[in-house]
Amino acid sequence: MTSPQVCAGATLQCSFGGAPGTLNVLPLNRVLVSGVPAATIADSIPIANITPFALCQSPANPTVIAATAAALGVFTPMPCVPATPSPWIPGGAPTVTLGAMPTLDAQATLVCIWGGVIKVVQPGQVSTLVP
Q: Which domain of life is it from (predicted)?
């Protein structure tokens, strides 16, 4: 089964995030899908590629721990700063590459060190499918 290619402007959601984020893809590979840069599994750099998800609700996040302690144990979400040390985990068989990197499909996931799992909600295009 095919899955849509993810590209710049895709909507992402973290399991501990308070709101959706956006995928930024730098036009390094110069390959466009539906008129915008196509993503690879290497497009996983916090802030540069992965925008914050509003408030982080992970009990493993040090800023959440500190804010909760300061609030005398009342759970206190804090601003999200994604911490993604590794590339996306491909959702399907990575058969298409861009610049020697597998392309990013809509079934891929990305793990944050604070325990969140980031998924693609809307891939940024729907007209071109990766076989």
A: Bacteria
Distance (Å, whole) CA 85 – CA 113: 7
What does the block give as tokens for 29? 């590979």
Q: How far apart are the C-alpha atoms of 30 and 51, rounded to whole Å?
A: 22
What confidence score (pLDDT) does residue 115 get?
Answer: 96
Supply the pTM of this predicted model: 0.88
Cα 27 vs. chain centroid, distance in angstroms? Answer: 17
C-alpha distance from residue 5 to each of 1, 31, 89, 102, 124 (Å): 13, 12, 14, 11, 8
Domain that holds residue 41: 1-53+82-124
pLDDT of residue 94: 67
- pLDDT digits 0-9 by tens, 50-89: 999 999 999 999 999 999 999 999 999 999 999 999 999 9
CATH number at residue 92: 2.60.200
